[in-house]
Amino acid sequence: MSTQTAYPIGTPGVPWGAGERAQWRARQVKQRSYADDVLAVVERLRARFDVDEYGVLDYGEDGRFPLYAIRTRAWRDDLPVALVTGGVHGYETSGVHGALQFAEEHAAGYADRVNVIVAPCVSPWAYERIHRWNPDALDPNRSFRADSPCGESAALMRLVAPFADRVLVHIDLHETTDTDETEFRPALAARDGKPHEPGTIPDGFYLVDDANTPQPGFQDAIIDAVAKVTHIAPSDPDGTIIGSPVVAAGVIRYAFRELGLCAGITDARYRTTTEVYPDSPRATPAQCNAAQVAAVRAAIEYAAA
Q1: Does 206 map to a domain?
Q2: Residue 207 sits in which domain range?
Q3: Of 104, 126, 173, 284, which is least surrounded by CB within 10 A?
């Protein structure tokens, strides 16, 4: 039996209470600026797009974080909607910057086919602290459900609600990083009072399709486009990626809505979650951003063909 170092907060086997959550929050330190990295780009885009403030997260001494979405200026009620979300997990950097890069370089080019709306950084507190959770130790990407206790998730659902039935395609931009295994999965196990079961980190890009309404052709089209930019993750020897069966090259499936995932907030016909691997020696930060952009473009091209 292998031995594991106990997570530094809490008692093994006992779920966290308010004290442990406060202790965890006190350890989180601001490492980068949402205002400088995200809001500055959003302001620059105001010249060409409508920008909606869809909420404000007030986290006391940690600050107030306005939430913005960038949308097609010539919004047309006769067109379907393409929804792009990034930074649901704030530490997943290319999700944020890939969404912004897509908006800046390509979103306007689809105005005759779809209304595009981009929420580039759903979790700004976590973006600044390079973390997965919000300050209440909640995972936004397990909290997209009615009466969500997670402010980040609830705000995005309110934004989308008026046009949710018109969303044709939703692509949610994520990363799988080495810190998933060294920090975030151990923290999750400690928070929930469960043992940490070591896993593997895929080396490369992969997608998560919806298990309830799979769209294999759609997923394959995205994989084909991204393969021109960065490498696709191979399956583990048991035929899985992060423990889930691989159903096609670089594709696994989750039950989006049952798990409270962002990609399940609409009934869009075409939905996917991207996963980029920024810690690979074979990928640069610019390449990771470009992979996210390629995925978004391929998703819209396929859906709106």
Answers
A1: yes
A2: 29-303
A3: 284
Residue 283 CA, distance from chain mean position: 19
Could you read off the pLDDT of 19-67 as tens digits, one per residue?
999 999 999 999 999 999 999 999 999 999 999 999 999 999 999 999 9
Angle between helices 285-303 and 93-105 (to 10 degrees): 60
SS3 of 96, please? helix
Which structure tokens are listed for 141? Answer: 């990407």
Q: Which two tokens stand for residue 65?
A: 């974080």
Give buried/exposed letters for 101-113 (b at 16+ CB in 10 A, else e): bbbbeebeebeeb
The tally of domains found in the chain comes to: 1
Determine the straight-line distance between the first and last CA of the chain, rounded to whole angstroms. 53
Which residue do the tokens 């928070």 mark? 191
Among left, alpha and beta (phi > 0; psi -120 to 50; other), residue 77 is alpha
- Residue 213: is it exposed, middle or buried by C-beta count within 10 angstroms (0-12/13-18/19+)? middle
**DSSP run (H or E) holding 264:** none
